[in-house]
Hints:
With 195 residues, the protein is of the alpha+beta class. It has four helices and ten strands, in the order H-E-E-H-E-E-E-H-E-E-E-E-E-H.
Amino acid sequence: MTAQRKLPPMMTVADFIDWPGDGLGTRFELIDGELRAMAPASGTHAAIQSNLTVAIGLHLRGQSRCRMLTAPGIQPRVRAEWNFRVPDLGVTCSADRAGQIMIPDPVLLIEVLSPGNVQETYEAVRCYATLPSVRDILIVHSTRVRAELWTRDAKGDWPMNPAEIDGGLVPLVSIAYQVDLAEVYAGTHLIEGNI
């Protein structure tokens, strides 16, 4: 049996990357120098994440130099030395390099919203918006069929509020693709009669 390690009180991103973990396999983010454990996903959350990975991944494969990543590391511009976020999914158009821990120049970041991560998710959106390469930030709900999409305009500004989409296609400008919410929620208890 692996012994649990004591969690450090404060750390920088460099410390976090070098940290061996808690000895229990728990996944963490670094928020303002403090470790925050990431709760395991529900079956619905996991299905939505998987469906998005397949749909967007297939779109990108063979027709784009961009690639989809699950649980990519993100270092926001705000308090960068003290923050290391881990969205559910991300797309970058930068080349893969050996030993990369953080996703370089993400263009699309996606979070699946669950009842237990609402505050953290919207807090993360504010951090993601500080990255100049990000064009789209997508939140997909796991308790109802709904997506919230922030898309940066041609001047580089973010809208005050996201577009709320309750069915049909979600336009992802960053990768020139429209993902169908019916595909996103396929195989979940939410799809029947909702779209």
